[in-house]
Specification:
single chain, about 500 residues, mainly alpha, 2 domains, two-stranded antiparallel ribbon, 22 helices, 2 strands
Length: about 500
């Protein structure tokens, strides 16, 4: 109860509202992602209480995901990757003069989907935590690899590029003092590297500075968008009957979003596309999808906010991030001295209750903040790219320096910004690298402790039932796409021979 009351203290509620306003700005500007918003806001939370800091992270992520639908609807330019599916019917409604209705549906369905996702999180997480208490070093080793493999297979680009990115992340995670032997690794005599690569500066560089470099390369003087000519009309009472008409689509999409988000590496963008595809296949008016149907609006936006609740399930229960946003959250928790995993429900029960409460309250605050964002968005289009990108660079440098008051961390941010820019040029996704940096210590530590227990034998890693199941899932995830065509050919040849 104390955790619930603490949410309404000015030290938690005001930062939450401010973060949600920042999320509307970042999500509504094409090219600035929700992940980038969270990465930029983490340094601000460094000296806060854990609940206040996590409240800002939760607030900025939910609002940024919704705000990405604003440019997707008005301009056919997704503000965030999770808004990619919103362009299909939202923009068509805008061309019919119904952009305000589409965004009203977006906002209300985002709130409903978010509430369903959080409700499922509250119901599913504690029982899963009890199950996770059975895990030993063997299971956590395979679990870390499973989370990494899911991210690799679901990342944009081909499988090989995803594996390259994940491997780079694991290599970066080995920099610093070896906790087993106390021997420095890959430091090249630089004392600044003894503590390893700072996660937050690396994250800000990969998702903040690299985006700036991409936009500078385009050389556009404005945000590549025309001015909104339509007068935005927001009418909740007109939207609610439509939501009621498609209530099962909303509920179904929210469930799909939650469970897709719970898959490590999937995230809100994949959830939105899956929900849209399922809605189209099961709809009585499937031929209208893509032409401006309201059902095509409610499905993806119900899923992408619900997915955020789903991503917290593996993050809290197993300490494995569901997406890059919760990867940053895990880094922040470690920064606060918290240990994500099944014991967090015992050791930090009040904090977990506070997180759940903040997430619920954020959904209701999203309604007025979202309407305000829709109203002022046309003003944001008047900003020049140079102004927005300069602000991003300044925030990136300040944020990187503020963590440890270290200019070296600023250098790390700059280096990783260039690395991120170059990797995306050759279509290597960044998400697996981030998860590799986050999960690297977990994978290595549990592998080495497990080997110490077994005297160097890998056999026990395959003997426990849960370990064996996780190993099979990893094998199917990574090699299934290659084996499936071979299995089909063998099955066809057998069928032909029998006939």
């Amino acid at each position: 109860m104390d955790a619930v009351l603490q949410i309404f203290q000015p030290g938690v509620l005001f930062p939450l509202i401010i973060a949600m306003g920042f999320g509307i700005f970042v999500g509504g500007v094409p090219g600035l992602t929700a992940t980038m918003a969270v990465a930029l806001i983490i340094p601000v939370t460094y000296y806060m209480e854990p609940l206040a800091g996590l409240a800002m992270v939760i607030g900025v992520s939910f609002t940024a995901i919704f705000a990405g639908d604003i440019p997707a609807t008005f301009l056919r330019i997704p503000g965030t990757p999770a808004s990619g599916a919103a362009i299909l019917d939202g923009f068509e409604l805008t061309k019919k003069g119904k952009g305000g209705l589409a965004l009203t549906l977006d906002l209300m369905c985002s709130v409903i989907g978010g509430l369903i996702g959080i409700a499922l999180l509250i119901l599913v997480a504690p029982p899963l935590a009890d199950f996770a208490l059975r895990f030993t070093n063997f299971e956590y080793f395979w679990l870390g690899l499973f989370g990494l493999s899911m991210c690799v297979i679901m990342s944009r680009g081909n499988l090989i590029n995803g594996m390259i990115s994940a491997t780079l992340g694991l290599l970066i995670a080995t920099i610093g003092i070896d906790i087993t032997t106390g021997y420095p690794r890959f430091t090249f005599g630089n004392p600044e590297l003894m503590g390893g690569i700072g996660f937050i500066p690396a994250m800000i560089g990969l998702f903040g500075l690299s985006e700036v470099l991409k936009r500078v390369q385009r050389g556009s003087s404005v945000l590549d968008t025309p001015t909104i000519k339509e007068k935005v009309k927001i009418n909740i009472w007109k939207a609610m009957p439509i939501i009621w008409k498609y209530k099962w689509t909303v509920i179904k999409s929210a469930f799909i979003g939650t469970f897709t988000g719970a898959l490590p590496g999937a995230g809100a963008d994949i959830a939105a596309w899956v929900a849209y595809g399922v809605a189209k296949r099961t709809s009585k008016e499937s031929d209208k999808f893509g032409t401006g149907t309201t059902e095509g609006v409610v499905a993806p936006t119900s899923a992408n906010n619900a997915a955020l609740g789903g991503t917290w399930i593996p993050a809290l229960v197993f300490g494995v991030p569901g997406d890059t946003i919760t990867a940053i959250v895990l880094g922040a928790m470690l920064m606060y001295g918290l240990r994500p995993g099944p014991l967090i429900f015992v050791e930090s029960r009040e904090l977990v209750t506070g997180i759940f409460t903040v997430a619920i309250i954020a959904q209701f605050i999203l309604i007025p903040v979202g309407f305000l964002g829709i109203r002022v968005y046309s003003q944001l289009l008047k900003l020049k790219t140079s102004v927005v990108l300069t602000a991003v660079v300044i925030f990136s440098m300040i944020g990187s320096f503020a963590i440890r008051n270290s200019f070296f961390d600023v250098s790390v941010m700059l280096v990783f910004g260039i690395i991120g820019f170059l990797l995306e040029k050759i279509r290597v996704p960044l998400a697996p690298m981030i998860l590799g940096i986050i999960l690297g210590p977990m994978i290595e530590d549990n592998l080495r402790v497990g080997l110490m227990k077994t005297g160097g034998s890998m056999t026990p890693f395959f003997q426990r039932p849960i370990s064996l199941v996780l190993f099979i899932l990893i094998a199917l995830t990574l090699f299934g796409p290659f084996l499936a065509p071979l299995v089909k050919k063998m099955f066809r040849r057998r069928t032909v021979n029998e006939s």
